[in-house]
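Hi R.,

As promised, here are both runs. First protein below:
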Amino acid sequence: MTAEALDLDVIGREITEPDLAVAGSVRQWLVEQGRDVELGRVADLADWWAGVRGHAQAPAPTRIAGALDELPATLDVAAAMAWGVARADALADDGTELIMLAVPDSEGTGFAAHLAAAELLGLDAVEATGWPLEQGLHDEDWMDAVVTLRDGLFRTRGLRGDLTALLTAAGSPVLAAATAMLVQSCVRHTPVLLDGDGALTAALIARRTSYGASQWWQVAHAADGVLTERMLGSLHLTPLLALGLRVQDGTGARLALPLLTEAAGLLQ
């Protein structure tokens, strides 16, 4: 299936920030109770949840969906972007309160995410790969990874300002679908739990359409690594969990969900 590629920048212009007034009132209430400090990140999470749900007593999410659960395997990049927008709309229309996004590291998607992140962050192949000992790679495997990424960066050079062209050059329909879904989910005010480096890369690309987009997201879990740290720093997001997971199948999001439920309980 093929389709004309969407312009994500145009869609991103419709993104607005979460309800900062509601979030501020929750923060003030927690301060007055003296619980903002003692509860640390849990208080921050409660504050965020109230803001993205637009209600100071927002209950814990019960209508939760995986972002890419129904993604067809036959789409090209352009069609996958259209699918991602339609998926975000369908979930919002169905009353979904929270999306959990994991981008599986399969069929070249892991490399595509690595490539797109390195391009957006302005890193060369060595910086983006890290050193062999840090990555647990033998020297030969590390050199192969660096050369492959270097060659990929030749394809993406100069595409930082054209997200559709960047996604096309990266060549992963899965990454394209995730990115488009994230942009449209912000437009539809549906919060997202990001799980893993693939989801972080999609967020990094989507955030290029609107700086305020990242306010609709939380990072459930992220693996260790120089590229991961750089992405988190750029997005100004901190993972809720640090468990050393390397899978990108939604496990981190499922493990972080009880934490969000606990935080929402503070609002009741």
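And here is the second one, sequence first, then its structure tokens:
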Amino acid sequence: MPFLTNWLTVFFVGLVAVISPGPDFALTLRNSLTYSRRAGIYTAIGVAAGNLVHVTYSLIGIGAVISRSVLLFNALKWLGAAYLIYIGLKSLGTNRSLDNAPGPTGTKNLSPWAALQIGFWGNLLNPKASLFFLALFTQIIHPRTPVFLQALYGITIAVLALVWFALVAVVISQPAVKNLFLSISGWAERVMGAVLIGLGLRLVFAKGN
């Protein structure tokens, strides 16, 4: 069945893209370690929401415009890079460990809305995501493809992102794992900050084609 073949293509290609280390993974990991499991899960929800936005505009053709416009692509690229570098600099500037942070569990507080926004904007401001969705969907979607199938393909990617990054948040926030990072929290947060800055700089120098 063409539908099953196309859906499996979306599933496996999307799975590889989602689990590949990148800004989404780094942001989810950082919030799970620095704050809490809940913060990590809401970050994952934000990432999935960002994916839905990418899916929507890619399916209606805006992704093609962005991929062909140097000005639009570069504007989005610089915004995304600036956001990642900003989050990274905040991590590098930390001057206290998680053990000394307020709260009964020894973790800092981050509201669900703030965590969701970090995941959402981190994903949305990544121009590579728009190119990925455009490249994938142009291979499997044709003028006769029903709208509900197009939506199903897009939702599949978003669900993959949500499940994967929520799983990352759950695993990394397990007491045994998190306690290990708590003992080196200052350095761990700075390392994550450096990773985010590196990803931001990589985005700056990424080519549009």
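A quick note on the second one: The chain has a mean pLDDT of 80. Let me know what you think.

Best,
J.
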